[in-house]
Amino acid sequence: MGMGSCRTSSQDTVREKYDTEAESYSRGSNQFVTAIRSFPILSFLLFAGCAANSGVEVVGDNFETPQPAKKLVIAHRGASGYLPEHTIAAKAMAYAQGADYIEQDLVMTKDDRLVVLHDRHLDTVTDVASVFPGRARDDGRYYVIDFTLDEIRQLSVSERFELEDRVATPVFKDRFPLWKSSFRVHTFSEEIELIQGLNKSTGKSVGLYPEIKSPAFHRDEGKDIASAALDVLSEYGYTSQSDDVFLQCFDPYELQRIHADLMPAKEMDLLLIQLIAASEEYQSLLSADGMKQLATFVDGIGPSALLLVEKDSTASGIRTTGLTAFAHAAGLKVHPYTFRRERDQMPPYAKDYDDLLTIFFDEVGVDGVFTDFPDLTVQFLENRR
Amino acid sequence: MGMGSCRTSSQDTVREKYDTEAESYSRGSNQFVTAIRSFPILSFLLFAGCAANSGVEVVGDNFETPQPAKKLVIAHRGASGYLPEHTIAAKAMAYAQGADYIEQDLVMTKDDRLVVLHDRHLDTVTDVASVFPGRARDDGRYYVIDFTLDEIRQLSVSERFELEDRVATPVFKDRFPLWKSSFRVHTFSEEIELIQGLNKSTGKSVGLYPEIKSPAFHRDEGKDIASAALDVLSEYGYTSQSDDVFLQCFDPYELQRIHADLMPAKEMDLLLIQLIAASEEYQSLLSADGMKQLATFVDGIGPSALLLVEKDSTASGIRTTGLTAFAHAAGLKVHPYTFRRERDQMPPYAKDYDDLLTIFFDEVGVDGVFTDFPDLTVQFLENRR
Question: Whole-angstrom distance between the N-terminal and C-terminal Cα of chain A?
Fold first, then answer.
């Protein structure tokens, strides 16, 4: 495609959602300001067409207009507020809690299998360092891509931790305890079979929300992760826009390639979501024109919630950034991330989790949210019916 | 203890709950009549004391009197109506659906580990026959007790099936499909850690409802399963009647031993439940005297639902057997099994699942139910508040 040459692995790393999320509300200073500088590698978009997708309802900039569409609850890595992220158990719990869509982050193994893990590294959610000592790269990290699926299946999965002076401390101290019970890494196919099996046994229709992680990194390692992900989706019957799947990626070049090349070649036409981090690279997208450009190849955006409400908003004075209105005017759905009930994960202008949801659903007017707490979000939406 | 001599493995098999359940409503003839013949091995009970447990509320035989205690939803093998029984995922789903207690059936491995499986055999829920061909006993079955935990961890777990002409067919055709996704056998400790971890992350207090499976069989094989189960419970802090655990068993001799010998020796005092199948052996228990005798060493009964309502009852004329009244008069809780929404799993006098629950909670007056569908049962109880 000739689009990989100007991107490096380090740029790709910046786009990893967890990294940006983890910093969300902890910096304290003018994060939003730094987030809207420039993203030169997106300049090609200026040459792309500007027509909004046809057939998609355009709400316009008055986003308080009642919208008939159901607000979506997207289980972020499963019911990750309660069980270790991306485990089969966390997905079953999210399903039971009434999520509309369940997220799968996809990374590729040495033997070209897609596994459901947030990071390209295994070392912050598994015991890889003790099971396979000496298999780290020079940066000290254990890369999924350096292990076969059989090797990865030998690992135990834990609630996410950070290593401080070689001692593991939980990222979220009030969640599931570290290293308890019995969890393992599973494949994308196994998660699809879980959700399809539950759709059979419950009679419901819960959808998939897979993310292509770090496509440039995978390409540098000789692997085409987007093509592989599309093949698995197609194998399980997800081929058209009516098939209950949103395919998400932080990399606009990869989404453009999926839209223009991969899906047509595979006779697929899935709904695509451009993820947008609160970082400099995405500055050129945060405008009416940026949204119109995106709408030529995606169906919605998954922005950091930081990008939708001005940082200096107060409880009595919420000021939206206008991005939601730009997106809706271009016919794009808006599914911000990540909604958590913990106080230190919440912006200061929200007094509690329900208040946060009220602000984003009612004042900002988003179409759905990525949440670690599907149950609280489903309950909130049911209570206001 | 000298109590094993008059019991054989085949008698023990009769007491396996699944076997009796599977026949529940399918025989069509006078099953209830055959269920109340004699159970000679229970004759020792005639020599046991007759005092009801002190401190337990005695409701009397008017079981329609409003009872303040919360009706309990016991997740039978997890949310087994939706996911393969006894998997970690099925337990996580049951937890999310609001079950008050989650059931663990316990069986012992060759290397003395307690695993959570309903049967003493591995062949109706795992791929043991293909992974370990030649390891069956003469009866063609693959016994848990002949395999180490490491071996059992290599198996894949499926929705329950029956082998007909060597072809696996699902026991419940509308449930989770056979052999899909990725499930494994886990230990009792791992399940306790799941539930305790969820109690931490959710702030709730869901309890355990472990069953000692086939104690006579285990003793014949040289293993004391009840003692091992008590040790694990104690290790995880379950030692007193206030610790959210009911320990159940079909074998009254083993319950008597747990009550009189094992628990005192281990400084434990858990709530005990006598399971009662709709089979001849339990005939001597189905009376006011039988319940008084049981109340000297257990705190409740877990009878087949067949034993609580006369089989010839009709939708407009439900006739209770009196067993619930006898139990309540003796101070015993009543937790019948198994409540399922499938039409062919329901007695003819109930018009649907909610009607079945209305009959048992309101007309029979039970204190809780074992159900494959915790969500529907929780919803039913919430709707009538």
Answer: 48
**Domain span including residue A81:** 35-50+69-119+186-383
B278-301 residues labelled b (16+ CB within 10 A) or e (exposed): bbebbbbbbeeebbbbbbbbbbbb
- Whether the full predicted model's pTM is greater than 0.90, yes or no, is no
Structure tokens at A175: 């969640």
Interface confidence (ipTM) of the complex: 0.87
For tokens 């599931």, the residue is A176
Beta carbons of B176 and A197 less than 8 Å apart: yes
Which pLDDT tens digit goes with each residue over A345-369? 999 999 999 999 999 999 999 999 9
Which chain A residues are closer than 8 Å to B201 by Cβ? 81-83, 174-176
CB-based contact B187 A191, cutoff 8 Å: no
* Residue A28 in domain: no
Closest CB from A93, A190, A194 relative to B96:
A93
Kindly list the catalytic residues of B.
76, 118
Look at chain A and report how many structural domains it folds into. 1
Distance from CA of B184 to the nearest CA of A (A): 10
Query: Is A313 among the domain residues?
Result: yes
Residue B354 lies in a domain: yes
The residue length of chain B stands at 385
Put simply, the answer to whether B174 touches A201 (Cβ < 8 Å) is: yes
**Average pLDDT along chain B:** 87
CA torsion A167→A168→A174→A176, rounded to 10°?
-140
| Residue B15 domain-assigned (yes or no) | no
Return the structure tokens found at B47. Answer: 């020599």
Q: Distance from A184 to chain B by nearest Cα, in Å?
A: 10
CATH of the domain at A218: 3.20.20.190
Strands A72-75 and A368-371: parallel
DSSP string covering B12-77: HHHT-HHHHHHTTTTS-S-HHHHHTS--GGGGGGGGS--PPPTTSPP--S-TTS---SPPEEEETT
